[in-house]
Design brief:
- With 324 residues, this protein is α+β, with helices and mostly antiparallel strands.
- Strands 1-2-6-5-4-3 form a 6-stranded antiparallel beta sheet.
- Helix 2 crosses helix 8.
- The longest helix has 57 residues.
- The radius of gyration is 26 Å and the shape is elongated.
- The structure holds a DNA duplex (16 and 16 nucleotides).
Length: 324
DNA sequence: CGTCTTTGACCTGCGC
DNA sequence: GCGCAGGTCAAAGACG
């Protein structure tokens, strides 16, 4: 859910993820010195320029001041975001606690024996993609989980007769950001699925695909995948039931479909449902993936590189003795 | 040849 | 009872 994602996204920053610590407090000479290796790399070409071109030094100093101010502003923003995050998490926890208490109360008042007035509605509600999904928080890596415990109807067949069995199973909803150009409704989650139907529903022009877990014939888990009506870049996957076998992310799962643009990293933040339900929060692997992705994104950004070079140059300038 | 996807038809539940 | 909508089946075709 939102809080899980927020935690996954923020914790590395809050706890001072070392690999992403840029240490851009370039305007403060008291801060930690740079690693010697980097210092040497810049020094070799930089000091001749300092001597020959004082105007450029001034320009660099001005740039340094600007970057320092920006850094201070960003630090301030980060602190504000962290404070907001902590506050929101507290609110969410309160709401969840209140919600579960209310659920316990209502189910107790029903006596547990009163059948649901509309079983079908309960099932169809489990994939209401007409409602806007939670906003994507981190671009294409945004995935959101909503694990709901609802009474679900599991249908199976006997020769010539359909039997419906009422059971209580977990309904997990997962939002996956997908490439809009990718029309497939495939959500890679480590399990092997067999598509058994597709349907265009009333409130959503995008078709809904129905999948069954194909690893074990007896596995009751079903999956429904549909694009969100509000945001067609969002895939809404709803899992019903729990796997009665282990996860088998082998060659079959990987090869059952050609790789799609949305499949490569879409579980980077979220383990498969089974793992996720077992684990209290995002795994270390997920955090590492996030950190690596953010680092890669930053290093690919030319603007970020320019700012980094500028900051490093200014830092070295300050640390070095004046040679005039 | 086995497995998987596609897709039209059918089944079931619900509201009017 | 009828129509609608969601869910599922199963034949046909695609693919490796």
């Amino acid at each position: 859910m939102l809080t899980q994602f927020l935690r996954a996204a923020m914790d590395p920053w809050i706890s001072g993820q070392p690999s992403l610590s840029l240490d851009l407090n370039v305007g403060h000479p008291t801060s930690r010195p740079l690693a010697p290796a980097k210092k040497v790399l810049v020094e070799e070409n930089f000091f001749p320029v300092v001597k020959k071109d004082p105007e450029r030094v001034e320009a660099l100093e001005a740039e340094l001041r600007r970057v320092s101010e920006e850094n201070a502003r960003l630090n301030e923003m980060l602190r504000a975001v962290v404070a907001k995050y902590t506050e929101l998490q507290g609110h969410v926890n309160d709401m969840l606690a209140a919600g579960s208490a209310a659920n316990r109360q209502s189910s107790a008042s029903e006596g547990g024996s009163a059948a649901s007035p509309s079983r079908k509605r309960i099932r169809s509600d489990s994939l209401d993609t007409t409602k806007p999904p939670p906003p994507p928080l981190a671009g294409r890596f945004a995935t959101h989980d909503r694990i709901e415990c609802k009474p679900a109807t599991v249908a199976f067949h006997e020769p010539g007769r359909r039997i419906r069995e009422e059971c209580t199973s977990k309904v997990t909803r997962r939002y996956v950001h997908a490439d809009p150009s990718d029309l497939s409704l495939v959500v890679k989650d480590g399990y092997q699925w067999r598509k058994y139907g597709q349907k265009v529903t009333k409130d959503n022009p995008c078709p809904r695909a129905y999948f069954r877990c194909s690893f074990a014939p007896s596995c009751p888990v079903k999956k429904k995948v549909q694009r969100s009506a509000e945001d067609t870049t969002m895939l809404v996957a709803t899992y019903e039931g729990e796997h009665n076998h282990g996860q088998h992310e082998g060659k079959n799962a990987a090869a059952s479909k050609p790789p799609t643009s949305n499949s490569a990293g879409q579980w980077a933040l979220s383990p498969p449902p089974q793992q996720q339900e077992a684990a209290a929060g995002p795994s270390e692997v997920a955090r590492k993936n996030l950190a690596e992705h953010m680092a890669a994104t930053l290093t690919r950004d030319p603007g970020f590189k320019a700012a980094l070079v500028s900051a490093l140059s200014g830092r070295i300038l300050e640390m070095s003795p004046t040679r005039d």
